[in-house]
Amino acid sequence: VGSVHCDLEVPDFDAAPLAISGVLLTSSRAGIVPTLPGQHVDALRKILPGPPTVVRAFPMSEVLGLAVQIYDRESAVHHVEMRTTVTGTDGREVFRHDEQQSSTQRAATGGASPYTTTLALQSLSPGRYTLTIEARSSLAPALSARRDVPFEILP
Predict the structure, then answer these.
(1) Where are the beta strands (DSSP E) in the chain?
(2) Do the beta carbons of residue 68 and residue 83 sit within 8 Å?
(3) How far from 90 is each of 29, 97, 119, CA to CA, in Å?
């Protein structure tokens, strides 16, 4: 029996013109852990290749999958540039994936849309890295939102 005391930040995604939810990570081995079915789990299966995991250390043989929700409140037609990068502790970028989403895709969902991508770790060396997901509006290039997730690749 015990207690944990911590501050919890609950973002107001409706307040910011552009925001990113927290990052859900999965890996090619995450499916080994039994996961109970349910409405939310079934919804995640549509966008992730496996169940979300809290693990942040992965063998080189794994493939990571990630998902975030993009909240874009701008009503004018534009696009959001999505960039996923992985950088080493030395600041060197070792992976980059760029993608664009049209605002017309998000119109039906009230400005929210999922963003997913995968990353094969076999091309990276063992060590510590930071995974960064960044969204930038074409209407205001200075306007951006990002999330950083530290992780480790094991030999």
Answers:
(1) 18-20, 24-27, 57-59, 63-72, 79-88, 93-102, 112-120, 127-137, 144-154
(2) no
(3) 28, 20, 20
List C-alpha distances in Å: 127 to 3, 39, 95, 121: 33, 36, 14, 11
d(CA 70, CA 111): 8
Nearest-angstrom CA–CA distance, 29 and 136: 32
Residue ranges for the chain with pLDDT beneath 50: none
Size of the chain, expressed as the number of residues it contains = 155
Residue at token pair 């990570």: 25
Q: What is the pTM of this model?
A: 0.83
Per-residue model confidence (pLDDT) at position 48: 79
Burial class (CB in 10 A: 0-12, 13-18, 19+), 137: buried
CA atoms of 134 and 9, how far apart (whole Å): 20
Q: Which residue has the tokens 């701008």?
A: 74
Beta carbons of 119 and 63 less than 8 angstroms apart:
yes
Q: Terminus-to-terminus CA distance in the chain, angstroms?
A: 37
Q: How far apart are CA 70 and CA 36, in angstroms?
A: 27
